[in-house]
Amino acid sequence: MTDTRPQDQPDEAMVDLLIKQVTEGLSPAEQRALDVLDSEVASAYSRDLERAAAAVMIAGSPTQQPLPAALAERVAQQAAAHFASPPKIGDSSKARAAVDAARTSAPSAPVRPVSRANRYGAYGWLAAAACLVLAIFAWQRSPSPPVVPVAQTPPPVIAPPVIAPPVIAPPVEKPPPPTPAEERAALLAKSDSLRIPLTSTKDPAAAGVTGDVVWDPATQRGFLHFTGLAANDPAVHQYQIWIFDAGRDKRYPVDGGVFDVPANTAEVVVPIRAELMVRKPAAFAVTVEKPGGVVVSGREHVVALGAIG
Amino acid sequence: MLQRIASGDAAAVRECIDQYGPLVWSIARRLSRTPSDAEDATQEIFLDIWRSAGRFDASQGSDKVFIAMIARRRLIDRLRKSSAEPPMDPVEALEVVAWADPGTASETSIEAEQAARALAELRPEQRQVLELGLLHGLSQSEIAARLGMPLGTVKSFMRRGLIKVREYMNVDAEGVSSER
What are the chain A neighbours of B140 within 8 Å (beta carbons)? Predict the structure, then answer.
């Protein structure tokens, strides 16, 4: 039988996949199947279907409840922080753009579902947390606890030296901004800031990692500070910070940003930028992820953990 | 508005929250499992909007549809990641969806009017499949189980329904183009 479809029309199998992608998301296997099909045709068709689904959603919501005032205020504050925050050290604009694109931009950007294995990934965290408890126990029993490595030679290196232009850059004369190390020291001096020791895991990249997290719940700012983390190639993978909030689902820690560790770096201070409000921080973790970071970590490579309490 | 947001215009950001907050909130509530999830989702959706505003192309649709697309994408992502459980809407809630009247939906957006006109041409059971899938976030398998309908039929209804809406939107868009 001859295929009489116009060349810009997807075949039936592709339409089925595209509709499933738009309505409920695809499994990894389905996504791979879609990836090998004609991406241009799929992309255009998917965009149309998404528009159609969005229009149906609007048509099915003729009356809408107002956004609760407190939530609207949080959204506004978050917007102000988003547009006003300087570029994140350790988070190249290119990498961030890649994350953004993966999350929201491309019409054909697949909704990456979490596999069943990911749902069980929580056990990985539990195992890592168990290691952490053991490590803390061992540390507490040690007659000479490790000294916080803040004064070493060579001097601290801020990782990595990637500076993106700020979104809003008013041309105001200002003194040079403090370095992350200075900001961390200032934050540490605040009476209500938290200091959480970081412990390495059994991951090869984590051998010998020591450090801490300083976090200020009031301003939602914090810094990761450590030595011993293996240098990474940003084209291959990046480190990503996660914040576990006791007020949220444990499976979805808050993204704290990605960063790099340059070669020959003895000590690193990385600003943490929480994408969402962290109401009750319970733990901090660092994972190894693909360049640009991920929305939800598979947690295959946890290199550092720090739990509160 | 989205172009102004992309350039960091604080007034446009506020305008967007005021104007589209209710839409995002109602979509988030529909496609979230708990009110707390809906709040988190709403914050994530607006972050996505701030990040994506620069990519808005007015020739591809209205602000409202762009924002609803971002909201749906984020919520589907969250639903997939959370579990196989359906969102918080109980079965009884299936009765309460009120579709916009095709005659008045243009007050909401031109695309909503096109969708409402397309939906009005569907058989009730086809419309119900779209409603469960798009407005309540049920998967095709869940719809089949809930309605006691073969999965193939659900797929077929979903496909025909969405294609019908798509055709209405494309036809109208082409009609507008040809008049220019």
Answer: 20, 23-24
Query: If residue B178 lies in a helix (H) or strand (E), which one and from where to where?
Result: helix B151-179
Is there a single domain that holds both residue A193 and residue A279? yes
Give every CB contact of residue A144 below 8 A, 6+ residues apart in sequence.
none
| DSSP 8-state assignment for residue A200 | E
Query: Any alpha helices (H) in A147-223, and if so which ranges?
Result: 180-189
**B contact residues 64-93, partner A, Cβ 8 Å cutoff:** 64-66, 68-74, 76-77, 79-83
The terminus-to-terminus CA distance of chain A in angstroms comes to: 69
Instruction: State the Cα–Cα distance between residues B49 and B67, nearest whole angstrom.
Output: 7
- Given an 8 Å threshold on Cβ–Cβ distance, is A52 in contact with B109? no
Q: Are A88 and A271 in contact (CB under 8 A)?
A: yes
CA distance A248 to chain B (A): 9
ipTM of the predicted assembly exceeds 0.90: no
Range of the structural domain that residue A54 is part of: 12-59
The CATH number of the structural domain formed by B1-87 is 1.10.1740.10
- Per-residue pLDDT tens digits for A84-104: 765 444 444 433 443 344 333
